[in-house]
Amino acid sequence: MDAWLIWLVVAAVLAVAEIFTLTAALAMLSVAAVVTAGSAAVGLPVPFQFVVFAAVATVAVLFVRPIALRHVLQAQAARFGVDALVGKAAYVLSEVTGLDGRVRIDGEEWTARAYDETLVIPAGKTVDVIKISGATALVYPRD
Q1: What's the domain count of the chain?
Q2: Strand pairing class (136-141; 108-114)
Q3: I need a surface site. Which of 28, 69, 77, 129 has the fewest CB within 10 A?
């Protein structure tokens, strides 16, 4: 079997392995194997093929991979709408039970229920918004 074909098989195996790991390192090694297959196809001797593979792999892993990871691992986009209310503090306006109640979240009045249905939260307490279900905030008291 020709050396360039072996390098292409190695590149394919590395590319498939990358699909399962999602680390971007194996993808860079796969690219290095493709470049090496090209150098093998033009007749570069085997020892120099390994030098080409090592050089391209080193450059890719050290310089290209961090850039790729920065684009993949971007910070979570800002939450908006009712999703932005989760985790905020709310002020209890009328007693909150597992069935009903009223709270003020960021200046807006919301219907509320206690996240733990056995709790009774008196008016005047501060609670955390755990979840928004429709137009009802599920809240839990702060300690």
Answers
A1: 2
A2: parallel
A3: 77
